[in-house]
Automatic annotation (TrEMBL):
Keyword Nucleotide-binding applies: no
A GO term from the CC aspect: plasma membrane
This protein's name: DUF883 domain-containing protein
Organism: Bisbaumannia pacifica
InterPro entries: DUF883_C, DUF883_N, YqjD/ElaB
SUPFAM superfamilies attached to this UniProt entry: Apolipoprotein A-I
Length: 110
């Protein structure tokens, strides 16, 4: 399992804080509806909607950033593999042949 980076920990903590903040606002809204104070409900509803939109935008931005980072990481790994194969063609052929033999043996055992 990959180790967590400080940036990942900070992102996780920010996500927890966002969700706790949103939960608190929604709990206030639920509590206010028991009051049946129309102006109070309207204000809390607007506050909850605003926090929900803010949280949604933050989560979307984080998701896009994580997707971009993962895509870049995979691209770098593919480039490294491609360079290795071009730099060591016979080693790559040997590895491919060995993997083929192992797969053949495993399939043949059935």
């Amino acid at each position: 399992m990959a180790s967590r980076t400080p940036r990942t920990d900070a992102s996780t903590e920010q996500l927890k804080a966002d969700l706790e903040h949103l939960t608190q606002t929604l709990e206030e809204l639920v509590g206010a509806t028991a009051d049946d104070s129309r102006s109070n409900i309207k204000q809390l509803r607007e506050k909850a909607e605003q926090r929900l939109q803010e949280t949604r935008h933050r989560l979307e931005a984080r998701g896009e950033r994580l997707y971009s980072e993962a895509r870049d990481s995979v691209r770098d790994q593919v480039d490294s593999c491609d360079r290795y194969v071009h730099d060591n063609p016979w080693t790559s052929v040997g590895i491919g042949a060995a993997v083929g033999v192992v797969i053949g043996l495993l399939i043949g055992r059935r």
